[in-house]
Amino acid sequence: MDTRALLSLATVAETGSFSRAASALGFTQSAVSQHVAGLERTAGTPLLTRRPTVAPTSAGREFLRHARQILAHEQAARAAVARVTGRDEDTPVSVAVTPATEQLVPVAGRLASVVVVDAAAAAAALMSGGADVAVVDGIAAPGDPLPGSGPDLVVRVVREAPLAVLLPVVHPLARRSGIDLAALTDARWLGTTGTTCSTSELASAARLGLRRGTAYTGASADTVAALVRAGHGLHAAPASAVPPDGLAVVPLTAPRLVHRIEVRVHAGPRAAVLALADAVRAAP
């Protein structure tokens, strides 16, 4: 299957326009139309609506899910070949980091780019060749890998700390030496997804349903602290964290979970990539 056709289909779906897709890809509009029409003949059904708007059909959405996987695999294959042949030996290093790990990336050295994304996007960028190094953090049981690890990756732990609960100092449990998470399932938790130790990560790792309070979709630790302090919900934090004013950090006694920061590179990395990964691990 022609990956150019898959790229045309994906770009039309993303832009909602054949002409905008052609402009973005450097193709003619006629070529983009022919690419999509050829895929529709192969699929035996329309993949896009044309009027009143250009959008994927139900079949198109399913087709696109697989098409994007194929495109990602092709990009990963190209990146793997470049690593093996050494064609990228002198290329500056690209890094994908999560918000909690951004400060670990050294500014010295030849950096092509540093992009701040969530852990899933950082892992995907590394696998596809969009990044040479991924620095990610997340919640896991001790010894378990964080999501997004792969068989051809070298994963090194930068730091790891037991998990704790961040709660106001006036909370009845604030003076305890430890808390069982099962005792807090009826408590309100901040509805976070992109923060360090997000509630969605905690619920998934603990396999518990947590009652959601105020939703917060940002990544600011100061905002999380302010929301917890104001009583909008509890939040998880590394037990090693220094509690902000008005807050307490109480370790979780059960389940046993940790907050871990990892640096990941592909096996057999070039010297510049390895040097940057080592610098991340050595960061204070």
TrEMBL record:
Give all residue intervals belonging to the HTH lysR-type domain. Answer: 1-57
Q: Which UniProt keywords apply?
A: DNA-binding, Transcription, Transcription regulation
Where is the signal peptide, in residue numbers? none
Task: Work out whether the entry's keyword set contains DNA-binding.
Answer: yes
Mark the transmembrane ranges. Answer: none
Look up the domain of life of the source.
Bacteria
Q: Looking at the keywords, is Transcription regulation present? A: yes
State the family it belongs to: Belongs to the LysR transcriptional regulatory family.
Q: Kindly provide the name given to this protein in its UniProt entry.
A: LysR family transcriptional regulator
